[in-house]
């Protein structure tokens, strides 16, 4: 029985870089040699015991610990199971983060990202993730070939950018819209780029880190503000002649950003929740209904956007420069997690086996 190294989470604040059994491909399955895996904000929240992952008790717990984490991975095909004809040995693959059941109503309708089983790589026993030397791709997984010209950094960014594209699509951006994107991490900054491709009247970025505001402008933001230093309400009202923004995409996962978004939106505005919170969030729902008659939209995973993101990166329409800020070896995962959380210059942090 061959062994490999992997980062396994046992409990909040208890992740271990250890030897585990190396996967083998059964019928319909594929084994990848992991080439890179990004650290998602969800991975950090899982490490810290976030309620979205660990719940309040065993009955509402999402994670099935112990489990190898990581869902933003890509790799090289090293083994193919019986019946697989969608790839060959040596191909580079991006794997969508969810393993759909294929049987529930959503899967049968083609909306597999909303699968009632909701098995995301790195959180379920049958979907061990990419924080490892090798990963087994489940037979139900959706895979995509990566162009040979892609850099490892571009390949790792496919999954997070696909999630961002889904949120931008849900916003239904029109040419007359003023769009605010709150949270300019790697996904939020990429969403600035994506939103600008719809040619709206204006795109405004918000973040508390100055270097992210600068990168947001490089990616196309017409203006970028720091909520900790600027009077955001005043600035947005000034830029919109007192009306407020048409679209607010929340990508920070900060509870304060929710209330901020409800304030900034004009009547009949559209709010898209993309960021993941570590705790429950409260807001004045009167603003949503009796006040402004807002449209509230939730954005979950990446829907059908992987092919478009891959093509966008290939053609250069989707920028990637500067989105990967740090690269660490998997064995140095503690430094990587710390950088992702505390380094003021961090964007997306990437792990390599």
Number of helices: 11
CATH fold call of the largest domain: Quinone Oxidoreductase, Chain A, domain 1
CATH architecture assignment of the largest domain:
Alpha-Beta Complex
Gross morphology is globular
Radius of gyration: 20 Å
Structure description:
- The chain has two domains: 3-146 and 323-352, Quinone Oxidoreductase, Chain A, domain 1 (Alpha-Beta Complex); 162-298, 3-Layer(aba) Sandwich (Rossmann fold).
- Helix content is 28%, strand content 27%.
- The protein has eleven helices and 18 strands.
- The strands form four sheets. Strands 3, 5, 6, 9, 10, 17 and 18 form a seven-stranded mixed beta sheet that branches.
- α4 crosses α5 (186-196) and α4 (152-171) packs across α10 (306-315).
- It is globular.
- The mean pLDDT is 96.
